[in-house]
TrEMBL record:
Coiled coil: none annotated. Pfam families: PolyA_pol, PolyA_pol_RNAbd, Tti2. GO terms for molecular function: ATP:3'-cytidine-cytidine-tRNA adenylyltransferase activity; CC tRNA cytidylyltransferase activity; nucleotide binding; RNA binding. This is CCA tRNA nucleotidyltransferase mitochondrial. It comes from Fusarium circinatum (Pitch canker fungus). InterPro entries: ARM-type_fold, NT_sf, PolA_pol_head_dom, PolyA_RNA-bd, Tti2. Residues 84-229 form the Poly A polymerase head domain. GO terms for cellular component: mitochondrion; TTT Hsp90 cochaperone complex. CDD domains: NT_ClassII-CCAase. SUPFAM superfamilies: ARM repeat, Nucleotidyltransferase, Poly A polymerase C-terminal region-like. Gene3D superfamilies: Beta Polymerase, domain 2, cca-adding enzyme, domain 2. Keywords: Nucleotide-binding, RNA-binding, Transferase.
Amino acid sequence: MKRNLDSFLKEHYSLTSSSVTTPSAPSPKVKVKVPGPPAKVLKSNMVTTTVQLTSKEQQLRRLLLDVAKDIDESGKAPEPIVLRWAGGWVRDKLLDIQSHDIDVAINAMTGVPFAQAMCDYCERPEAMSKHSIGPADIGSLHNVARNPEKSKHLETAMVKMFGLDLDFVNLRKETYTEDSRNPQMEFGTAEEDARRRDATVNALFYNLHDDRVEDFTGGLADMKAKVIRTPLEPFQTFMDDPLRVLRLVRFASRLQFTIDASTRRFMADPKVLEALRAKISRERIGVELEKMLKGDHPFDALQLVHELQLFHAIFTDPTQESLPVPDISRWAVAYTCLDELLNDRDSTSVAGRLITSTDATYSAWNLAALSPWMTVEEPPNPRRKANALPLVAIVSREGFKAPNRLSSIVAASHRNRDEILKLKRAVCKGESYIQERDRFGMAIRKWDTPAGTWRLQVLNALLVEALETLTAWRQEASAEQSKFLAGWKSFLDHLAKLDVYEVTTLEKLLDGGKLAKALGGIKPGKWTGPALDVCVAWQLRNPGETDPTGAIEEVSILPEASYQWKIRRSLFILVTHQHSINDKMPVTDSDTILGALEELLGPSNTRLLHEISEHSELLTEAAVASISVLCSKYRIILDQITLVKLTAVTDPQDPWTTAQAAAAASKLLSKHLEGESLNEFITNTVLQKHLKPLFMKSSSRITASGRPSQYDMIDDWSRPVIEVQSWRTQAPWAEATIQWTVNMSTTSLVKQHWPLFLPVLLALVENESTKTKSRGLRTTREFINRCPAEVLQNTGIGRVFADVSFPLLLHLPSVTPEDESTTILVPAYDVLIKLAQSTGDTNSIERRRLFDKILRDGVFAGYFHASQHTRIVQALLQKATAVINSLGIHTTKHLTPLLSMVSLVMTDPFAVSYPPTLIAATQTMSAVITNSWPRIREAEHMENVARILSLCWLNVSEEIEHGASRTSADINTLLRELAHAARILQALWAHDASNCPAKLTEALKQEPRLSHLFPKMLA
């Protein structure tokens, strides 16, 4: 039954104030009527006042009231609709601030149905005529779903009307729990809705029906006093939603209000700060920080953050348990310095030169906010990668979810700060090189990543130096402060004198193609970038020059460019002699060709090795072919150094060689090295002279002589990784060389000289690179193949290999990407299986223990963590099959977890989409049946195995029926493996029909397709 709206309002609010008439010609200006004569007091101590609406707002008000009336008349709401405009619009209206965003609060409906009703109403011709609604006056309706993690606790409807952005929500009250900031939401009254808000000035309503502002919390008085306070008790307010702490900081700085003393006290409460760290998503913290720093008063915002001790709650990495704590005692120096610099935006001022846009201003405030982190020393981490983000950039990314570009600016500012300071101090001291335009220009070009940010990086260096050297930044500049700014002004003026501010947009005289052509047609490659930098530096030294000849001459002396010329020259000499009747070649010519090969593979020129890798298929083949011709036609004997370098091109998987070059190099080595000369070459030349010096400090698991340590060693993590792995930069060819060495070694050689192999193999296996680690494991497996069992056991090197290999079985997704994981897992299992097989006879307890550990700590644990990754599961099952076949009857102890794992794979209907995994699982099942047949014959296991095979067979059959090609190689192989496993199973009851699973007979009657799997059952 409908109720009269007027009686409803009188019943609930008992209005005692006289009505206020809306002016017939409203002014766009707002007139705030704060009580001159006392404002009328309503129930619940509600205070009212009035506002004056613009013509668009008045048009919207009339429309919304008609929509509410239409809903009331239709009976769609449980009680008459009362509409209010809430929050920020009311506050801004009273402060004479223009606002186009209006929150419409509804008492008896949620926002979505009301907004839909409004849109439907606006489509009526009579409504369009009455409210002058044109085609462009109403936008599309958008529903924003409930998302508590993003502070969207109710479904919200959004629509644009008369140029105003409207959000429709219902009045609500909130109930919080201790461990979450996401409240339980219920319909509430206007007073309950007001009291749940963050500040009294944000808790005002404009009642569309009364045309009055309603104040339930004292917001009007606080606005007049310019005070920010919470509607309810502050501590509980902040504990309910700790983000309110940052919102109050933002409103206080934006409105230039002060925060009430009692409210302020609880904003810095340790429990509140801990709740802010624990309960609030970092994205929401980032949103509030961005609004602060993009507002009109970012200095005031940071000052409040500092005073309220909020720094460590905002600027932190919550993903790390133990972080260094930056010293913020001088933080005010940085942000106060920036605020003063921004007061002078003259083109020649510091800010005028370094902060050139609104976006740059925002980035500058972020750098000032993070400045205490810029000086924090990175914690020691031997596994830290060279391109890893510095701690300050991680804090920006994780602490407040800074965008990628901002994090990149922060990282670059940290990375280049020392170099910027070095150049600035050189200018201040008048060093001799400060007139070198190319030095400063190239430095700026290097800093400018991301593009257009080098100025901000210089500003960061200024702010951090101020923080480090000045005790305070005073409003009236001290002599020390003036001297500090003068130094930076001098540096920036010097850059202007050198004319390098726009050096990043310099138009180059040469590009890569033109430069390569000028050097004689050399193919562009990785060498091109550094060569073009040489050209740019030449341009900076010769600013008026347009002829690039001088730049080309400087590039031509670079080893990266001259190398290819040497290769071409050596081929020319060789071809010339091939067409000559003379069988002798001058020593100088042979030296030229051999020198070209040496330069290609020389350990002193590893940078070149990488530079030419993209076209090595031509260069390496040409060089090795040249050597082959020299040896065959001119009978030149290769020296030991050249032979070592040939070993580096024997693996076609390396980027600097090819299959043809590898085959030719292997043939040359075989021809020059036979019998004792091969053994001598491996032990003395390769292992002793070339590899041993590179791997002296490779692993703490072994002694300096290459023997296993007798005590467990604790790694010295303070030792830089670069010291341990320097061989990667000095001699990347070492991987291929040790691989060739192991493959060419005999059992007797390994038995006698195993300590020479151990440091190199461990260095490869313990390397951070996935590719190197995998290659090291494969080489180690070949070494174990050649190493006598008694050496592995008696010397302890078997234990060393096991200790280094077992942790690699945990390189699983998501910590390790799936493709990298399989690259490591397969050879790691191969090493461990080889070790176990070499440990005593088949009944050896030690052998069984190692196989048991491989299954428990490797296969079962790996499947538990990565069962959703099909290729990982495939690899685990393949290795499980090898272990089962090695354990034999002793597999029985693992029967239950094995059957459980195989069952999960084979009965999964989606597994058919990747048949190789099912093939591996079926082969594992066959191995289980074969090696654990006494237990499989038990009824429980027999029925389980039959069930698994049957379900898998039916899944494959359905896949074929739905379009999968039966002729597919994988599908055919899978069907054969399933049939093979079924035959093994049937053999267990071939001589005793009582062992046949009773349920299988029934299943065959119900499902004829199983007759192809168990054909003997129907015979």
